[in-house]
Amino acid sequence: MLVGSDPALLESSPDASAIASPDTLTLDVGGMKCAGCVKAVENQLTQQPGVLSATVNLVTEVAKVEYWSEVVAGQALATKLTESGFPTKVRWASAEPIDADDEPVLSPAEKQQQATRQYFRQVAIAAILLVFSAIGHLKHLGWDIPILGSIAFHGGLATLTLLVPARSIVVDGWRGLRRNTPNMNTLVSLGALTAYTTSIVALLVPSLGWECFFDEPVMLLGFILLGRALEQQARGRATSAFQALLSLQPTLARLIVAAEGNDGQKTWVELPADRIKVGECLEVLPGDKIPVDGTITLGTTTIDESMLTGESMPVLKQPGDSVAAGTLNQSGAIAIQATRTGDTTTLAQIIAMVEAAQTRKAPIQTLADTVAGYFTYGVMAIATLTFLFWYTISIPLWHESIPALNHLGHSLEHSSLMAHAMPSPVMNPVMATAASPLLISLKLAIAVLVIACPCALGLATPTAILVGSSLGAERGILLRGGDVLETIHRLTTVVLDKTGTLTTGQPVITDCLALQSGLDDADLLQIAATVESGTRHPLATAILAKAQQQSLALLPATDFHTRPGYGVSATVAGQPVLLGTHTWLSQHGVEIPPSVEQQVEQLASAGKSLVYVAIAGQLAGIIAGLDELRPDASAMVEQLRQMGLRVRLLTGDHPAAAQAIATALHIPPEDVQANLHPQDKVAAITALQSQGERVAMVGDGINDAPALAQADVSISLHSGTDVAVETAEIVLIRDRLLDVVESIRLGRATFNKIRQNLFWAFGYNLIGIPIAAGVLLPSFGLILSPAIAGAFMAFSSVSVVTNSLLLRRSRPAIG
């Protein structure tokens, strides 16, 4: 733990007791078409014994399951979903053995490309059939083409459409209905098959006088397939940033196995990067990606770290410097010793965080999920009621008063001709045709089925989060999930830690004041360095570095003890020594003479952090270190204020030192709290929250972890301690304070896209379904054809994904 007047400088690694925790499983789930499918998959998983929670993403087709592996096996969950109509595979770690009989696993990018190609092939076939259908209607313009204008030919086109390009839609729709998990394909299939069946009956029994509308299934399914293709293409663009991140993962590494001859020439063997173990030595040639996190042991080079830091300038690396997996070796051959491999590398952790962010849902999505669970059933019920209402009540009652219905059965002279009258929806998208009450009612019911779009509800949140989190990763900002985005939108206050956050975290010892007779400054520094030798923190490092500069050897010492947030103690040369805060010494009965207080105030007012040293129960001296402000600290505070956020400083440092920093950053005194220990910071944030404030905490140390956990949104610099990074919901890879501002802007922009998408998805269905049900027919005589209703439905899904993609165009406004 750091020992100084700032508990941010008091860090240790307390022992953590092992607590049993559930396992997390990743499943690749296929066959999901809409939000209803997502809800069905989640319900299937959560109903299984041993499953605690399940979150499913429609865009990435991934399910994250928290479960007890002792109760249920991951493969059993995958099998259950597959049996329910959602082909599922367990995503094993890359190092897992793969059975030779297993099918090759496609990457997400390959799956996207495969699905897009399949949809466009189906669209091409549907377009050809639609062209033939349109040619057949040239007879209405006086160009009668034999065979192509016959009703039987159009019936054949509709049959081919259902059997070839739309076969997967029909099969999946009926499979979902049979398994009690209806989806968007179910609605489309019901609409298309109803129109087709009615037309077949009209064709075979012309005496009924029914109208044939074989064009409806052809056009309806054509529009649906075109919309699916465009939507899939848009999804591919939405996932492109994440796929680019995945592509950075190196696949091969050169493991050094021996040294031959006096020239030290190395021999190596090429292995998969995920098979490398910690401690092994690797060779990396110019142009190669660094395969694992490691430390350079031989050679000098420049490394392109732009994929991690966003900085385009390469960085010079020498022996002893660390390198990260995925970065590019540019100029020299080097040897590195692996320090982190596989899923523990920095790049792997970034990818895991981005993927987790895309899975975690925003609370605003809860309403959409609830609606989606019953959406398909509701739409089928509305379609049934629409048919019954118009057929049994409205048309018989109002056909004389509604202009569109006034000429039912009278506009065509012969019923046999009616069977061949096929108004083209292309020429007349909003139609009020003369037809029997049965056909009018059927068309309205079909339009209701196909205009409803549960897909838009399911895509609203995940597409925006996908684009936002991927965009953040490009800029070195890792967001843990949609729930974080929603909270960012409501932030009112940003709380800042001082040491290592506002400052560089690399203090330099400026003053060493010995206050005990027989003890000079060098002796004081030597004793302090000895006690600090068992700790790792900025001030400890600075004290040890200062002692090394003066060639002061460490003394024999025993009984080291650290108390987080207060200080450290040890026995040096048989005498007990204390280093730490004023409070730490007071707790041990060490008094600070009034004559020393003036020196303390002078040092603290200069912005210096203080470490008190006591030997044998008496104050022996004071060591002061100066930690400079980060260059972008002032700009960050100013921009946060411009965004309407209140900025507060919470520090464990001396009040005078805290005020010096606050003055430099123009933070008013009432927003500064000093002499705080970790639990005090938690209490301060809790007090703000009790006043209705939504608080973000920015910190980097172990002592900041409790406050980070308490805050509504926690932000940590990537250079911070592992505990802080693990606790934080936003991690800033580039260690730039201005990224605090950009992360909040990105969060706000992403959440606004989520709200826009959900508003459109709900608004579209709330307006579109009543119009399709004929609400405009009594007043305006307007009826939507099923084909145009299907086009609107396809447009709805595409528009949601496209709106999310607009986040990329708003980049200048975000950061």
Can you tag this structure with a few keywords?
single chain, 815 residues, alpha+beta, 7-stranded mixed β-sheet, 6-stranded antiparallel β-sheet, 30 helices, 48% helix, elongated, disordered N terminus
Provide an overview of this structure.
The chain is of the alpha+beta class and 815 residues long. The protein is built from 30 helices and 28 strands. Helix 1 (35-46) packs across helix 11 (365-398), helix 3 (108-136) packs antiparallel against helix 7 (215-238) and helix 7 runs parallel beside helix 29. The radius of gyration is 35 Å and the shape is elongated.
At a glance:
By secondary structure, the protein is α+β, with helices and mostly antiparallel strands. The chain is built from 30 helices and 28 strands.
Topology record:
Elements: E1 23-29, H1 35-46, E2 51-57, E3 62-67, H2 74-83, E4 88-90, H3 108-136, H4 151-163, H5 167-178, H6 184-204, H7 215-238, H8 240-247, E5 252-260, E6 265-272, E7 281-284, E8 293-298, E9 301-304, H9 306-309, E10 315-317, E11 322-323, E12 328-329, E13 334-340, H10 346-359, H11 365-398, H12 403-406, H13 415-420, E14 430-431, H14 437-451, H15 454-474, E15 477-479, H16 482-489, E16 493-496, H17 498-502, E17 508-514, H18 521-532, H19 538-549, E18 557-563, E19 567-572, E20 575-580, H20 582-587, H21 594-605, E21 608-615, E22 618-626, H22 633-642, E23 646-650, H23 655-665, E24 672-673, H24 678-690, E25 695-699, H25 705-710, E26 713-717, H26 722-727, E27 730-732, H27 738-772, H28 777-780, E28 783-784, H29 786-809, H30 811-814
Helix pairs in contact: 1-11, 3-4, 3-7, 4-6, 4-7, 5-6, 6-7, 6-14, 7-29, 8-15, 10-15, 11-14, 11-15, 14-27, 14-29, 15-27, 15-29, 16-27, 18-19, 21-23, 22-27, 27-29
